[in-house]
Amino acid sequence: MAVRKSNTLLLLLVVMVLVVLVPTVRANIDTYDDYWKSRAKEAKLDALEAFDPSPGDVTHEFNQKVEKMIFGKNDTRRNLRGKKGRKRKNDGPCMATNPIDQCWRCRSNWAAHRKRLADCVIGFGRKTTGGKHGGYYFVTDPSDDDLVNPKPGTLRHAVIQPGPLWITFKNSMVIRLQEELIMTSNKTIDGRGVNVHIADGAGFTIQYIKNVIIHGIRIHDIVSKGGGTIRDSIDHFGTRTRSDGDGISIYGSSHIWIDHVAMWNCSDGLIDAIEGSTAITISNNHFSRHNDAMLFGASDTNTADAVLQVTLAFNHFGKKLIQRMPRCRWGFFHIVNNDYTHWEMYAVGGSANPTIISQGNRYRASPYQDPEHDTRQVTKRDYASEAEWSTWTWRSDGDVMLNDAYFIESGTPLWKNDFSRYEMIEAKPGTFVSELTRFTGALTCRSRSPC
Predict the structure, then answer these.
(1) Is 362 annotated as catalytic?
(2) 287 pLDDT band (50/70/90 cuts)?
(3) DSSP designation for 358
């Protein structure tokens, strides 16, 4: 009864936040016309529908899938390796080392059945289908010359089409976006089989939409752009202000899955999720060479981000990362089975009372310590006294700490917490991270062979 009451109160709070919320930040929209007002209103309703009032049940289900994959058969090592295939440079047979990859990677016919990928997401973004229920669009042209009337065959032309669409690329290419790429709902961007770079220009903007999958590409060296007139759908274009320089900006959107993407060196964040975004899974990615990696939640005063629910799983946080892996506000964040091999300030931070459940990660502190700042600490809390943050639920469960790394916990222990109607299944400990994150980033896939 206590659990049901707690979840009901949480859902009521979210409804109140969404109903009274008036847009105060227009996210680079210069003219907030009827089109954008309608898109924002619809997105808020989608977020309310996507929000899960029992987030602990989602973490339970996630951990259960990992458990089943690893120990579902008698031979643990065989289950981790997956099905055998053609020899590859990465240590012989195809190796699907986590439940997402096991769902599709070791099938030699993956290219003929690309949309199977949409059945593989777990975590808070588990209902994301992207363009599964639509046709295919083949990007043949890497140019981005006309922002108002995009040329057919370009990525910009693909992402503004109405209805679901599964977007692939005919050849390897480098796309330099002249301004932010503004997408519409129900799209998959699938870079498998070729080598696609989004580089040296603007990044992706997922704003007031739902149901997006981004998979198998490289996003790097993204810069802030000056704005201008940009088409954002088949029947609308408008003026945008300067973009921030994020690799991927998720703004007021729901059901988002970012998987097997390599990201580095963007002007602002690698991935930001703000303004009431929710139902997000970020998995199997490789991050490196960046300062402010991820921001989940716009500000300490923006209660719209109370709906934020993010799963961060099987990612590798690599060289020359400094902080925000992620930095969280307000919502619920399941950080599970990631490999943190480097940070210069801190790994996981936040303010405004977020719930952070860290399970089965491997945190390796830098051997080079700043005498003025203890970089061995995984966590960092901002704008709150210890009396305040000691009530926030930040828990570490099964994490492995290397080079004297340490996680300062706070709030109610997991086994006493009432955010799940289940007793949470124990996540696989950080000792499994080497296997679970072995193949992060954009993969080298060939048609008719396991990926």
Answers:
(1) no
(2) very high
(3) E
pTM above 0.85, yes or no: yes
Name the region of 53 (left: φ>0; alpha: ψ -120 to 50; beta: rest).
alpha
Residues near 313 by beta carbon (within 8 Å), at least 6 away in sequence: 62, 98, 100, 122, 123, 281, 282, 283, 284, 334, 335, 336, 337, 338
**Which pairs from 192-197 meet CB under 8 Å and 24+ separation?**
192/110, 192/111, 192/114, 192/168, 192/216, 192/443, 192/445, 192/451, 193/111, 193/168, 193/169, 193/445, 193/446, 193/447, 194/169, 194/170, 195/442, 195/444, 196/169, 196/172, 196/442, 197/173
N- to C-terminal Cα distance for the chain? 47
- Token pair 């907030």 is found at 32
CA triple 268-222-176, angle to 5 deg: 160
- Look up residue 104 and give its amino acid: W
Query: How far is Cα 159 from Cα 154, in angstroms, rounded to an integer?
Result: 9
Cα Rg, the chain, nearest whole Å:
21
Give the pLDDT mean for 315-324.
97
Cis peptide before 326 (omega within 30 of 0): yes
Q: Distance between CA 347 and CA 342 in Å, rounded? A: 8
**Which position among 39, 156, 218, 324 bears the catalytic label?**
324
